[in-house]
Structure formats: structure tokens, C-alpha cells
Amino acid sequence: MHHDPTSPVFLCSKRRASLMSTCDVPPENFAETLPTEMSERIFGELDTESLCSAALTCRLWHDIIEESEQVWRIQCSLVSAVCQREVDSDRRDGLSWKVTLVKNYTRSCLKRDWLRGRFSHVRSAEELRGRKMTPLDAETWGEILQAELDR
Predict the structure, then answer these.
(1) pLDDT for the residue numbered 26
(2) Structure confidence at residue 133 (pLDDT)
(3) DSSP string spanning 48-107?
(4) In this structure, is residue 24 part of a structural domain?
(5) Burial of 14: CB neighbours in 10 Å, binned 0-12, 13-18, 19+
(6) Which residues are in the F-box domain (predicted)?
(7) In whole angstroms, what is the distance from residue 55 CA to residue 71 CA?
(8) Tens of pLDDT along the chain (151 residues)?
(9) What is the C-alpha to C-alpha distance for residues 104 and 99, in angstroms, rounded to an integer?
(10) Number of domains composing the chain
């Protein structure tokens, strides 16, 4: 099996010792040379989908992303813009930022779509077939109803 020597997966799988053995060769994986805090800041700039893809790139990236509360807190702040009540409740219950994000991500996307009127003209459940749905609480349905009335 031939590996592309420029692919992130290949670069990330090289051992640190081999990089250090040739001083004139620039480092190929930023996460191997930067302090973890700097790598977390870089990963914190990614959107949720890109962050999940980066976590699949190599073990080092996965470990940094998986263990960083900072990265997950940043992602969760985007979700809390739509689901503040739910995020606050989960955090009060002691859930980590990552678990809070995972628990509320689909809900926030669905709620945002409802509030923007994406489903304003749906006439039957059949029109929602294939759309991922998740339970919403009574307060959320009240917000959605008010948004519909305001349109």
C-alpha cells in the first residue's frame, strides 16, 4: 500500500524522533512542535464539522481535540446562541463541554431552522421525511410558535 508523503495522515503518523534526527528538515505537523495550548487555539478556530474531521486525521490531533475543554467550550458557545437554556442546564448538571455539545448540537440546528421559518409551510409530517428530528421542550415550542406568529 502506497501512502502519499504529503497527506496529513502520513505526516501525523511519523514519529517525533525521526523529525528530530534531521535538524534541517522543518517540522511537518504543527501539533508535534507547538505547545498543546497553541494547538488547542488553532483547533478552536474550526467549525464543528471540520473539528470532527481533524480529530480523525491522526492520534495526536484526536488526543488534543478529545481532551481539550477549551475547544469544546468554543464549539458549545455556537450552540448556546440558539439553545442557551439547554446548555446552561447541562452545565449546571455537571456535564462536560463536549457532552453538552453532543447532546445539544442537533437540537440547536433543528431549533434554528424552525425559528428561521424553514418549516413554516410544511403541511404534513411526510414533508419532513428524511429530516433528522429531536424532541424539543415546551418552552422551545413556545418560542417557535411566537416566531411563526410574528412572521
Answers:
(1) 60
(2) 85
(3) HHHHHHHHTT-HHHHHHHHH-HHHHHHHHHHHHHHHHHHHHHHHHTT--HHHHHHHHHHH
(4) no
(5) middle
(6) 28-75
(7) 12
(8) 454 444 444 444 443 444 444 456 565 789 999 999 999 999 999 998 899 999 999 999 999 999 999 999 999 988 988 999 999 999 999 999 999 998 899 899 999 999 999 999 989 989 888 888 888 889 999 999 999 999 8
(9) 9
(10) 1
Instruction: Dig out the grid coordinates for 111 from the structure.
Output: 431549533
Query: 76 with 87: CB under 8 angstroms?
Result: yes
Residues 35-50 as b or e (16 or more Cβ within 10 Å = b): eeeebbeebbebebee
Say whether pTM exceeds 0.85. Answer: no
Other beta carbons within 10 Å of 58: 20
Q: How far is CA 127 from the centre of its chain?
A: 28
> What is the CATH classification number for the domain harbouring 107?
1.20.1280
Length of the chain: 151
In sequence order, the 6+-apart residues with CB closer than 8 A to the CB of 148 are 117, 120
